[in-house]
Amino acid sequence: MIVTRWTGVEVRALRTAALRVTQPEFAEILGFTVAAVRKWEGRRETIELAGRFAAGMDTLLQRLDHAAEARFEAALAGRGSVVKTPSAPDSFESSTEIAQRVQSLNELDADGSVLDILALAIDDVVERYELEGPRRLAPDVITARRQVEAMLRQRRHPAQLHALYSIAGRLSGVLGYMAVNRGRFGHARMYCREAFSIGELLGDTDLQAWVKGTESFCAYYQGDCAAAVRAAYEGLDLANGGPQSIRLYSNGLARALGKVGDSAGVAAAIDAATATASALDTGPGLTPALTFAPYGEARLMANAATAFLSAGEHDRCLDYGQQVEDRVAESDSVWSRSLVRLDMAAAMLGAGRHREVEHAARLGVEALEVSSDRPIRSVWQRAHELGKIIEAIPTRASDEYLGSLLAWSSTAREFSASEG
């Protein structure tokens, strides 16, 4: 069956009679906007679709089963726009049909600019993430992911399919990372599984290594250190000494080993991360935590401070924290400012040290104030870990921090508390 002229009438018949879907569902299937569908149907026979819009309708029409095709024909009975294709042609195709098919092939490249925009959207989310947070940005990422999925259902040039799947994998990975920061660990694991599967399909080991880093990050905040270590090692095998190794060593392996008290393992992992960063010349800056690029020196050192704190190496934690403190303060990373302060405060109260309670409490209060409008799971967890330490040291400063923590937690819970 062939439609010789696509107007709003044919579009409406295809949507309502053949597919029986709503306008938003129809737009998602095609990868077009709902506004476009509404305009076509509203203009009825006064508008004629051309180019990629008509080609999209042709493709959808060809996919109809016999029942849907019959409903479509019935809805348009009497209109000259529909030509029923003979079921058993006894000659070659007409030149018009061949020309239409060639035109469709040429139109497969029509969405190149859309792909560029979607790829740039990921970079934009990474840059805005720590200014706006997962609660505000996640809906936009979900919308982009659904748009890509709708585009994948259409007939595409192989190169475009590869680019679309690559974008889809990174969008799913970003959603997994955001879910960890919201304390939605179940969703985080599902998004990571999807992203990893896409990386496997594409043979993109860099994406797979990044996903393993996020899985390690997720397991760490769930308190499953064995799973965090395992995911980090799996990621390091995939990274094979490449850029993702820095994140896997420092954010994954070192921090998980610190939680089980393996000081030597922490030191070895941080040394390996530092050597890789030096070899790749990643620079001194504080790269965004949510990035697919290699970690810079400041981000690595912030993770090192956390890892050594967990291992009970309080002096080394303070050393790294003091080295990175100024660079963090100059950055847009409000969470890093909170987390470095919380780590240093906890290290100041470590066993066997001169307890600088007032200084530690002041750093803790500052940490809560810095990210009060966009708390995430990691800040929530470390703020409460500091609370457990400081409540055992009753002073006026301790009471001040605990009071601030109580007030902060009442609003932060909605953003960052663990699921269940």
Short description:
The protein is mainly alpha-helical. It is built from 19 helices and two strands.
Model description:
The protein has 19 helices and 2 strands. The protein starts with a strand and ends with a helix. The chain is elongated and about 90 Å long. α7 packs across α8 and α15 (314-330) packs antiparallel against α16. The protein has a two-stranded antiparallel ribbon. Among the domains are: 2-109, no CATH class; 333-420. The protein is mainly α and 420 residues long. It has helices at residues 8-19, 23-30, 34-43, 51-62, 66-75, 95-106, 112-152, 158-181, 185-202, 205-222, 225-239, 244-259, 263-280, 297-310, 314-330, 334-348, 357-370, 377-390, 396-416; strands at 2-3, 82-83. The protein is 74% helix and 1% strand.
